[in-house]
Amino acid sequence: LSFFFPPPKITVALFSIQDRDSGENGRMVCSIQDDVPFMLKPSVENFYRLVTEGELDREIRAEYNITITVTDLGTPRLKTEQNITVLVSDVNDNAPAFTQTAYTLFVQENNGPALHIGSVSATDRDSGTNAQVTYSLLPPDDPHLPLTSLVSINADNGHLFALRSLDYEALQAFEFRVGATDRGSPALSSEALVRVVVVDDNDNSPFVLYPLQNGSAPCTELVPRAAEAGYLVTKVVAVDGDSGQNAWLSFQLLKATEPGLFSVWAHNGEVRTARRLSERDAAKHRLVVLVKDNGEPPLSATVTLHVLLVDGFSQPYLPLPEAAPDQAQADLLTIYLVIALASVSSLFLFSVLLFVVVRLCRRDRAASGGRCSVPEDRFPGHLGDISGTRTLSQSYQYEDCLREGSGTSEFKFLNSIMPNHHGAVNDVEEKSNFVKGFGFNLKSVEFSENSG
């Protein structure tokens, strides 16, 4: 008998029993073992039905061997046994299950096309076509990931083949989902996550960031001659596009104009003086430094350094010939700016002085009737300068007086000294007022005789 997933109380088999004796010897009892999910139910006289007690699951147990025992009630009791085999048929009630929920696969970069990078596997607990599984790539979560150009999968066995060469520096890892579908009706499916990690290969040489090696004018490092041993001259800075030990860099001094004068630290690229400098050391030095990674096989690059020994950092540094014309033009422009500034300043000062002289002359002309100069006989002979320098040799004293009710100050000669020269006093007053107009506040001025 063969059944598929029957519900409870379903009749599996119908059979009848008989005994040729009569009376108590012909009465019979029918039974089965207790460890099976079935039971016997009497139907009409001497007829029994084998029915299920619960749901049957083929994936738990696909076959049952049932022993039916018939015993009479005579003395002695006689019995008969009959074996029945029940086969549970399959239905597609199980989806395929992957052996892992997530897979991590590793592939070396620069791989060849059609390289087998790993496999996925799924099983189905059903049987027949319900257990036959096919594999497929599911659409990636990232729509920009060109999955169909990176990998493919064998629909029958789940093998995964890289379709093109992978570059670690361009794509270090990517993820996608794989589906497994059975051939039942209706079909059931499941999925698993696959992560592909690209393993770095030592395919990049070190790249020097400083000093630049782009074919332009070399950079010159200045070192004072007073530098002690261990003085930091410069530092070579380099990077490597690889990862891990393929990107570990070491530095080594290959060539030097004067061996033993400079050294390079292997792990950080610092260039330092190996000893104290002396006057006998050459002024110009050329160093060649090797930068090497730790890959297998190792890749390397070289960098050239130029070092100039100077007496001190105050010593002017001569520019390279390519930069000399630009510096000369800058100096010439500075000279032009200085000359222009001096010319404008001189013109301004000359204009101010000319303005002051014109105003003074106009004041003198207004006070003396148009005369700008003081005649030689303006002062008495006993007040003249015997040296011919037109200065006064006598003592003149000015007082700062306030005119009553005017609120302004003026100068006047003391009457005891110059009683007869009121014209000169008027001139001095005019000039005093003119000076105050320019902001001067003179309290008193005294000219003393040169008495030695």
From TrEMBL:
Keyword Transferase recorded: no
Alphabetical keyword list: Calcium, Glycoprotein, Membrane, Repeat, Transmembrane, Transmembrane helix
Annotated Gene3D superfamilies: Cadherins (2.60.40.60)
GO molecular function, one term: calcium ion binding
One GO process term, biological-process aspect: homophilic cell adhesion via plasma membrane adhesion molecules
GO cellular component terms listed in the entry, alphabetical order: plasma membrane
Superkingdom classification of source: Eukaryota
Residue span(s) of domain Cadherin: 12-98, 99-208, 223-318
Principal subcellular localization: membrane
Membrane topology reported for the UniProt record: Single-pass membrane protein
Pfam families found in the cross-reference section: Cadherin (PF00028), Cadherin_C_2 (PF16492)
Keyword Nucleus belongs to the record: no
Entry's localization field: Membrane
Transmembrane segments: 335-358
PROSITE patterns: CADHERIN_1, CADHERIN_2
Protein name: Cadherin domain-containing protein
Organism of origin: Prolemur simus
